[in-house]
Amino acid sequence: MKNCFYILKSLIIFCLGFFLIIACQKVNSSQNCPKIDSIQKSIDAIQPGIKVESIKSSPVEGLCEVVVNLPNEEKGLFYTDFTGEYIITGSILEMKTLKNLTQEKLKDLNKKVLSKEQLSKLDKMVDFTYGNSKNIVYFITDPDCPHCKKAEDILDKLVKEGKLTVKVILLPIEVLHPEAKSKAISLICDNKGFKELMEGYKSSNICEEGKNKVNQNVSFLFNELKVRGTPTFIFPDGEMITNVLPESYILQKFK
Protein backbone atom coordinates (compact mmCIF):
# COMPACT_ATOMS: atom_id res chain seq x y z
CA MET A 1 0.00 0.00 0.00
CA LYS A 2 2.89 2.32 0.89
CA ASN A 3 4.51 1.56 -2.45
CA CYS A 4 1.32 2.59 -4.25
CA PHE A 5 1.24 5.80 -2.24
CA TYR A 6 4.83 6.69 -3.11
CA ILE A 7 4.26 5.84 -6.77
CA LEU A 8 1.18 8.07 -6.83
CA LYS A 9 3.04 10.85 -5.02
CA SER A 10 5.94 10.62 -7.48
CA LEU A 11 3.51 10.70 -10.40
CA ILE A 12 1.83 13.84 -9.04
CA ILE A 13 5.20 15.56 -8.56
CA PHE A 14 6.22 14.58 -12.10
CA CYS A 15 2.97 15.94 -13.56
CA LEU A 16 3.30 19.20 -11.63
CA GLY A 17 6.84 19.55 -12.88
CA PHE A 18 5.72 18.90 -16.45
CA PHE A 19 3.01 21.57 -16.31
CA LEU A 20 5.41 24.05 -14.71
CA ILE A 21 7.82 23.48 -17.60
CA ILE A 22 4.99 24.19 -20.07
CA ALA A 23 4.00 27.30 -18.12
CA CYS A 24 7.60 28.52 -18.03
CA GLN A 25 7.92 27.98 -21.76
CA LYS A 26 4.88 30.18 -22.36
CA VAL A 27 6.24 32.90 -20.07
CA ASN A 28 9.61 32.72 -21.80
CA SER A 29 7.95 32.96 -25.21
CA SER A 30 6.43 36.27 -24.16
CA GLN A 31 9.70 37.48 -22.65
CA ASN A 32 11.51 36.55 -25.85
CA CYS A 33 9.48 38.99 -27.92
CA PRO A 34 11.49 41.93 -29.30
CA LYS A 35 11.43 45.27 -27.51
CA ILE A 36 9.05 48.02 -28.60
CA ASP A 37 11.93 50.36 -29.54
CA SER A 38 13.45 47.91 -32.02
CA ILE A 39 10.14 47.24 -33.77
CA GLN A 40 9.32 50.96 -33.76
CA LYS A 41 12.54 51.68 -35.67
CA SER A 42 11.59 49.10 -38.29
CA ILE A 43 8.07 50.53 -38.62
CA ASP A 44 9.38 54.10 -38.94
CA ALA A 45 11.55 53.00 -41.85
CA ILE A 46 8.57 51.43 -43.64
CA GLN A 47 5.61 53.62 -42.67
CA PRO A 48 6.19 56.70 -40.48
CA GLY A 49 3.25 57.80 -38.34
CA ILE A 50 2.40 54.38 -36.91
CA LYS A 51 3.05 54.08 -33.17
CA VAL A 52 3.77 50.70 -31.57
CA GLU A 53 1.63 50.33 -28.44
CA SER A 54 2.51 46.85 -27.18
CA ILE A 55 4.28 43.60 -28.04
CA LYS A 56 3.41 40.28 -26.41
CA SER A 57 3.09 36.59 -27.18
CA SER A 58 0.47 35.59 -29.74
CA PRO A 59 -1.84 32.54 -29.75
CA VAL A 60 0.81 30.81 -31.89
CA GLU A 61 4.06 29.73 -30.24
CA GLY A 62 7.05 31.51 -31.77
CA LEU A 63 5.07 34.53 -32.92
CA CYS A 64 4.63 37.83 -31.11
CA GLU A 65 1.58 40.07 -31.40
CA VAL A 66 2.26 43.73 -32.19
CA VAL A 67 -0.50 46.28 -31.51
CA VAL A 68 -0.09 49.66 -33.20
CA ASN A 69 -1.90 53.01 -33.21
CA LEU A 70 -2.76 54.01 -36.78
CA PRO A 71 -2.99 57.57 -38.14
CA ASN A 72 -6.80 57.24 -38.42
CA GLU A 73 -6.94 56.80 -34.61
CA GLU A 74 -7.75 53.09 -34.88
CA LYS A 75 -5.58 50.21 -33.74
CA GLY A 76 -3.88 47.75 -36.04
CA LEU A 77 -2.36 44.32 -35.47
CA PHE A 78 0.46 42.32 -37.03
CA TYR A 79 2.94 39.66 -35.95
CA THR A 80 6.69 39.27 -35.70
CA ASP A 81 9.16 36.55 -34.73
CA PHE A 82 11.40 36.56 -31.64
CA THR A 83 14.21 38.27 -33.56
CA GLY A 84 12.02 41.06 -34.91
CA GLU A 85 13.51 40.51 -38.36
CA TYR A 86 10.22 39.48 -39.93
CA ILE A 87 6.84 41.21 -40.00
CA ILE A 88 3.82 39.03 -40.75
CA THR A 89 0.50 40.56 -41.78
CA GLY A 90 -2.78 38.71 -42.18
CA SER A 91 -5.08 36.61 -40.02
CA ILE A 92 -4.54 33.70 -37.65
CA LEU A 93 -7.30 31.11 -38.00
CA GLU A 94 -7.99 28.55 -35.27
CA MET A 95 -8.72 25.39 -37.25
CA LYS A 96 -10.74 23.61 -34.54
CA THR A 97 -13.28 26.41 -34.28
CA LEU A 98 -12.59 28.22 -37.59
CA LYS A 99 -12.40 31.44 -35.58
CA ASN A 100 -10.44 34.33 -37.04
CA LEU A 101 -8.42 35.19 -33.94
CA THR A 102 -6.90 38.27 -35.55
CA GLN A 103 -10.26 39.78 -36.47
CA GLU A 104 -11.67 39.05 -33.00
CA LYS A 105 -8.68 40.75 -31.40
CA LEU A 106 -8.99 43.77 -33.70
CA LYS A 107 -12.68 44.05 -32.89
CA ASP A 108 -11.90 44.14 -29.17
CA LEU A 109 -9.06 46.62 -29.65
CA ASN A 110 -11.22 49.02 -31.66
CA LYS A 111 -14.42 48.63 -29.67
CA LYS A 112 -15.79 52.07 -28.85
CA VAL A 113 -18.07 52.70 -25.90
CA LEU A 114 -19.57 56.12 -25.23
CA SER A 115 -19.89 57.59 -21.75
CA LYS A 116 -23.26 58.49 -20.21
CA GLU A 117 -22.43 62.15 -20.80
CA GLN A 118 -21.75 61.51 -24.49
CA LEU A 119 -24.99 59.51 -24.82
CA SER A 120 -26.89 62.40 -23.25
CA LYS A 121 -25.38 64.84 -25.77
CA LEU A 122 -26.09 62.40 -28.59
CA ASP A 123 -29.78 62.28 -27.72
CA LYS A 124 -30.00 66.04 -28.26
CA MET A 125 -28.62 65.63 -31.78
CA VAL A 126 -31.45 63.37 -33.02
CA ASP A 127 -33.09 64.68 -36.22
CA PHE A 128 -36.14 62.39 -36.20
CA THR A 129 -37.40 59.21 -34.56
CA TYR A 130 -39.02 56.15 -36.15
CA GLY A 131 -40.95 53.59 -34.08
CA ASN A 132 -42.29 53.37 -30.53
CA SER A 133 -40.55 50.32 -29.06
CA LYS A 134 -38.67 50.53 -25.76
CA ASN A 135 -35.62 49.12 -27.60
CA ILE A 136 -33.80 52.20 -28.88
CA VAL A 137 -30.85 52.44 -31.26
CA TYR A 138 -29.17 55.58 -32.59
CA PHE A 139 -28.60 55.41 -36.33
CA ILE A 140 -26.05 57.76 -37.90
CA THR A 141 -26.52 57.86 -41.64
CA ASP A 142 -25.61 59.67 -44.85
CA PRO A 143 -28.64 60.13 -47.18
CA ASP A 144 -26.61 58.95 -50.20
CA CYS A 145 -24.58 56.17 -48.55
CA PRO A 146 -25.32 52.83 -50.32
CA HIS A 147 -24.41 50.75 -47.26
CA CYS A 148 -26.75 52.90 -45.18
CA LYS A 149 -29.59 51.94 -47.51
CA LYS A 150 -29.01 48.27 -46.69
CA ALA A 151 -29.08 49.12 -42.99
CA GLU A 152 -32.25 51.18 -43.42
CA ASP A 153 -34.07 48.16 -44.90
CA ILE A 154 -33.13 46.07 -41.85
CA LEU A 155 -34.20 48.80 -39.42
CA ASP A 156 -37.45 49.43 -41.27
CA LYS A 157 -38.37 45.76 -40.94
CA LEU A 158 -37.63 45.69 -37.20
CA VAL A 159 -39.62 48.87 -36.56
CA LYS A 160 -42.63 47.56 -38.48
CA GLU A 161 -42.47 44.38 -36.37
CA GLY A 162 -42.57 46.53 -33.23
CA LYS A 163 -39.13 45.38 -32.09
CA LEU A 164 -37.16 48.61 -32.37
CA THR A 165 -37.18 52.41 -32.23
CA VAL A 166 -34.64 54.20 -34.41
CA LYS A 167 -33.30 57.64 -33.54
CA VAL A 168 -31.78 59.08 -36.70
CA ILE A 169 -28.89 61.54 -36.85
CA LEU A 170 -27.93 62.77 -40.31
CA LEU A 171 -24.23 62.84 -41.17
CA PRO A 172 -23.63 63.77 -44.81
CA ILE A 173 -20.10 63.02 -45.99
CA GLU A 174 -19.69 65.50 -48.84
CA VAL A 175 -16.32 64.18 -49.98
CA LEU A 176 -18.00 60.93 -50.97
CA HIS A 177 -21.54 62.15 -51.70
CA PRO A 178 -21.72 65.78 -52.93
CA GLU A 179 -25.54 65.98 -52.78
CA ALA A 180 -25.89 64.38 -49.36
CA LYS A 181 -25.68 67.62 -47.38
CA SER A 182 -28.48 69.37 -49.29
CA LYS A 183 -30.64 66.24 -48.89
CA ALA A 184 -29.97 66.16 -45.15
CA ILE A 185 -30.81 69.85 -44.81
CA SER A 186 -34.06 69.56 -46.76
CA LEU A 187 -35.14 66.53 -44.69
CA ILE A 188 -34.78 68.66 -41.56
CA CYS A 189 -36.27 71.85 -43.03
CA ASP A 190 -39.34 70.02 -44.38
CA ASN A 191 -39.84 67.97 -41.17
CA LYS A 192 -39.51 64.68 -43.01
CA GLY A 193 -38.73 61.29 -41.49
CA PHE A 194 -37.49 57.77 -42.06
CA LYS A 195 -39.78 57.02 -45.00
CA GLU A 196 -38.49 60.03 -46.94
CA LEU A 197 -34.91 59.21 -45.97
CA MET A 198 -35.31 55.76 -47.51
CA GLU A 199 -36.83 57.28 -50.65
CA GLY A 200 -33.92 59.71 -51.16
CA TYR A 201 -36.00 62.82 -50.47
CA LYS A 202 -34.68 66.20 -51.59
CA SER A 203 -36.22 69.64 -52.00
CA SER A 204 -35.03 73.17 -52.66
CA ASN A 205 -35.75 74.15 -49.05
CA ILE A 206 -32.31 74.92 -47.61
CA CYS A 207 -33.28 76.79 -44.45
CA GLU A 208 -30.81 78.25 -41.95
CA GLU A 209 -32.09 76.00 -39.19
CA GLY A 210 -31.38 72.93 -41.30
CA LYS A 211 -27.92 74.13 -42.31
CA ASN A 212 -26.98 74.90 -38.71
CA LYS A 213 -28.27 71.54 -37.47
CA VAL A 214 -26.34 69.54 -40.08
CA ASN A 215 -23.16 71.50 -39.35
CA GLN A 216 -23.62 70.76 -35.62
CA ASN A 217 -24.06 67.06 -36.40
CA VAL A 218 -20.87 66.94 -38.46
CA SER A 219 -18.82 68.78 -35.83
CA PHE A 220 -20.10 66.75 -32.87
CA LEU A 221 -19.93 63.33 -34.53
CA PHE A 222 -16.55 63.77 -36.20
CA ASN A 223 -14.74 65.75 -33.52
CA GLU A 224 -16.18 64.55 -30.22
CA LEU A 225 -17.42 61.02 -30.90
CA LYS A 226 -14.76 60.28 -33.55
CA VAL A 227 -17.29 58.74 -35.93
CA ARG A 228 -15.39 57.84 -39.08
CA GLY A 229 -18.07 56.51 -41.40
CA THR A 230 -21.67 55.51 -42.01
CA PRO A 231 -23.79 53.67 -41.17
CA THR A 232 -22.93 53.87 -37.48
CA PHE A 233 -25.05 52.28 -34.77
CA ILE A 234 -24.95 53.38 -31.13
CA PHE A 235 -26.71 51.25 -28.52
CA PRO A 236 -27.99 52.22 -25.04
CA ASP A 237 -24.94 50.58 -23.41
CA GLY A 238 -22.75 53.02 -25.34
CA GLU A 239 -21.35 50.54 -27.86
CA MET A 240 -20.65 52.23 -31.20
CA ILE A 241 -20.23 50.18 -34.37
CA THR A 242 -19.71 51.41 -37.92
CA ASN A 243 -21.03 48.71 -40.23
CA VAL A 244 -24.19 47.17 -41.65
CA LEU A 245 -25.32 45.07 -38.70
CA PRO A 246 -27.43 41.94 -39.12
CA GLU A 247 -30.87 41.79 -37.57
CA SER A 248 -29.72 39.10 -35.12
CA TYR A 249 -26.95 41.29 -33.67
CA ILE A 250 -29.26 44.28 -33.20
CA LEU A 251 -31.91 42.22 -31.41
CA GLN A 252 -29.47 40.40 -29.10
CA LYS A 253 -28.37 43.78 -27.71
CA PHE A 254 -31.78 44.07 -26.03
CA LYS A 255 -32.00 40.60 -24.47
Strand order of the largest sheet: 7-12-11-9-10-8
Q: According to CATH, what is the class of the largest domain?
A: Alpha Beta
| Range of strand content | 15-25%
Q: What is the general shape?
A: elongated
Helix content, binned percent: 40-55%
CATH fold naming of the largest domain: Glutaredoxin
Instruction: Determine the structural class based on helices, strands and strand pairing.
Output: alpha+beta
> How many strands appear in the DSSP assignment?
12
Give me the number of helical elements: 9
CATH architecture of the largest domain: 3-Layer(aba) Sandwich
Q: What is the H/E string?
A: HHEEEEEEHEHEEHEHHHEEH
Q: In whole angstroms, how far apart are the ends? A: 57 Å
Spell out the blueprint of helices and strands:
Layout: H1 2-31, H2 36-46, E1 51-57, E2 64-69, E3 75-80, E4 87-88, E5 93-94, E6 99-100, H3 101-109, E7 112-113, H4 116-123, E8 128-130, E9 136-141, H5 146-160, E10 165-170, H6 180-189, H7 194-199, H8 208-224, E11 232-234, E12 239-242, H9 247-252
Parallel strand pairs: 9-10
Antiparallel strand pairs: 1-2, 2-3, 3-4, 5-6, 7-12, 8-10, 9-11, 11-12
Helix pairs in contact: 6-8
Structure description:
One of its GO terms (cellular component) is periplasmic space. Keywords: Disulfide bond, Periplasm, Redox-active center, Signal. It is a single chain. Helices cover 44% and strands 19% of the residues. The protein has a 6-stranded mixed β-sheet with strand order 7-12-11-9-10-8. Strands 1-2-3-4 form a 4-stranded antiparallel β-sheet, sandwiched between helices. Strands 5-6 form a two-stranded antiparallel sheet. The protein has 2 domains: 35-110, Nuclear Transport Factor 2, Chain: A, CATH 3.10.450; 113-252, Glutaredoxin (3-Layer(aba) Sandwich). The model is unreliable at 1-28 (pLDDT under 50). It is α+β, with helices and mostly antiparallel strands and 255 residues long. Strand 5 (93-94) and strand 6 (99-100) form a beta hairpin. It is built from 9 helices and 12 strands.
